[in-house]
Fold this sequence. Notes:
This protein is of the alpha/beta class. It is 38% helix and 26% strand. The protein has helices spanning 42-49, 72-78, 95-101, 108-121, 123-127, 138-150, 168-183, 195-201, 219-224, 226-232; strands spanning 4-13, 16-26, 31-35, 57-62, 65-66, 80-83, 156-160, 187-191, 204-209, 212-218. Strands 6-7-8-3-9-10 form a 6-stranded mixed β-sheet, with helices on both faces. Helix 3 packs parallel to helix 6 (138-150) and helix 4 packs antiparallel against helix 6. The radius of gyration is 17 Å and the shape is globular. The mean pLDDT is 95.
Amino acid sequence: MAYLQIEDLQVSYGAIKAVQGVTFSVEKGEIVTLIGANGAGKTSIMNTIAGLIKPAGGTITFDGKEIGGRKPYTIVKSGLTLCPEGRKIFPRFTTYENLKMGGYTMSPAAIERGIERAAELFPRLKERFDQVAGTLSGGEQQMLAVGRALISEPKLLMLDEPSLGLAPIVVQELFECFTRINKDGTTILLVEQNASMALEISNRGYVVENGKINITGTGKELADNDKVREAYLGGM
């Protein structure tokens, strides 16, 4: 069985079916990307895996254990962490305090170790440890969100729209960090509007449309697919 295995996942909001029988997998050590239009169901998938939404059907298995419907903190303890869409930092806390919040399931020593790693990946965060997070730039806030997610030492890191609203130079810096995080041993599941950059660093990808997966392939295969190029890569 794959490291993360999603089978026939269904997610509903009342009578609305946001995710309709999605099946996909992530192997240990991979970067896997979900791409699709706004409202396709990508964030619903990520939030359900993370335990923020209870699945209406299907199974979610991570590292050999069923985690579907479990409490979010138990899923974090199992080694799976979500860096959510929109960053969701605590704007009135300092940068350092935000990072500490990422380690609420960890020992004090592990939290400090995680903060050191975040500061190494994102040196600007260390320069702003004492700065109120709400006054950081958009790029710095995204770095903080990623750094906070890493404090729990995840085996698998889920990143939901990390480049949203950021300048191209910041996006490039973030993606270089994602590649480094992966090479350091962390598996990554990525939801990303910048399909071109996402597929470039991904082993495999899935196209989500109307709550279903319609196209699958390696990162290169999807980047070369005419339908994908027309819909998500600007016809490049």
